[in-house]
Amino acid sequence: MVQPLVEMIDIHKWFGGVHALKGVNFSVGRNEVVGLVGDNGAGKSTLIKILSGYYRPDRGKIIFEGREVQFKSPADARKIGIETVYQDQALCPNLNVAQNIFLGRERIKKLGFLDKSKMFVESARLLEKLGLSFKNLDMPVEFLSGGEKQCVAIARSLYFKSKLVIMDEPTSALSLRESQKVLDFIMKLKESGVSVIVISHNLYHVFPVADRIVVLSKGKKIADLSKEKVDIEEVAKLIISS
Amino acid sequence: MNNVLDNTRKLLRRGSFIGFIVFLIILVSFILLSKGYFIQHTNLKVLITQIAEFSIVSLGVGLLMIAQEFDLSIPGTMLFCSLVFLYLHNSGVTPALIVVIVLIVGLLIGLLNAMLTIKGRIPSFISTLATLLLWTGVTNMFSPPGTKRSIIIKDPLLVGFFVGDVFGVPVQFLWFLFFAVVLGLLLHHHVFGSWVYATGGNKDAARAMGINTDLVKIACFMIVGFLSAFSAIIQVIRAGAFLVGIGSAWNLKAITACVMGGVSLFGGYGDVFGIIIGSITLSIIENGLIMMGVSYLLSWAVYGALLLMFVIAHSHIRRRMKILS
User: Complex ipTM, two decimals?
Assistant: First the structure.
């Protein structure tokens, strides 16, 4: 049995008196796309926030590439290769594509001065490699469409060689065409050897890209099935009936 | 054709471009209206001194605005720093030490503003309004009517260093150029500058990517405090007296100047060139108003009207840009 990329074992989380996660076991394999689904309040966001270092589990452990890890902050998670792509929160609208890709990880010369040409060239190269073209790399990203913005955020995680990319509702605010762009991108991530966790309400978006579907309900995992063994209606029924 | 459109759009998006056009219009009209008096040597020298002393402060204010914060306490800071300068000078402290101490006071005042805003979680508009009242009140308390207000600055180094002349150019202006270059490099070519823009553009995204937005804001507040203290030192030495009206309305003027130069009231947008252009333009307008004999109180209305006009103009353009793209 090939060792999974990351294993979350017996994760519990309390918020005050609310038992948000009740002993969840969740793992992601190498090069695997996992769709994490469930109704509102199921605990999906909480689970991935623990995995990305935003929260600490009250009980349970996380094993990444065979070693137990503890995150004190999202920076720790990012350092070992776990990136989270948030909706809307990931980009600075006033900065251009290159500046956003290198946000917080700017390439600098001596004394902290920016190596702008390097960042610009590498961004252009990255976007070309990913088959993305923006009219103008110099424009503030607020002038890009929602789908283009998501792609910039995803391109960022690709550049910094993440091993695991977590996406929280990546297609919620997007049009059909833009959603397809993002989903194509997720497949590109997988082709690059990256594992992806996609949280979504939209089963029709998750199904085409996922290798495995995990269903959470009221803090517990109620299903963990490979996509071939199940279809959308069954999963929907599972979510609604619980 | 498309290229021309793109380039025009790019230019228009730079808020400072409009500020520059306005500057040119104001400059030319004032020169013509004053029948050349405007550029006469005496008026020009006074004007350049005023521009320098004011713009040193507005450079800091603009930087802070890009980080999405405001500092309304500047007049209070300058009053208090003047008082400290006066006190130290009359106590016979060595000039170099006086300058260092007053600058440190400015830094600490900036730090206080930052702490109240960030740790106290109070909007900077409110916290710095409070400190404005605080420092104004403290200064009034320690300098009741009858206090000796004028000082004789004998130290040639002090005079030469801060208010002297270099080949006819006031030293203040050289200081202004120095700070303009330093801040320009910092904001546009240093990683700290990207952090300032990121903090002002989307603080949460910046934090999520590991930027310490609190530290960035603290640094900006302290820079404003430092520059306010510096300008206060210059003005006290030049006047040889404690100026009761030092920095009066400069909190509003600096914000207006920055907005005229394309700095956004909502943070994230602006450049040093724009801040400089806006400050110069506003100073020219003020100079013109004085020449025309316009009442001081009316000038407040003028600043308010300018602020409003530019805010509306900029937001209108940004909305148009969004629709076009």
Answer: 0.85
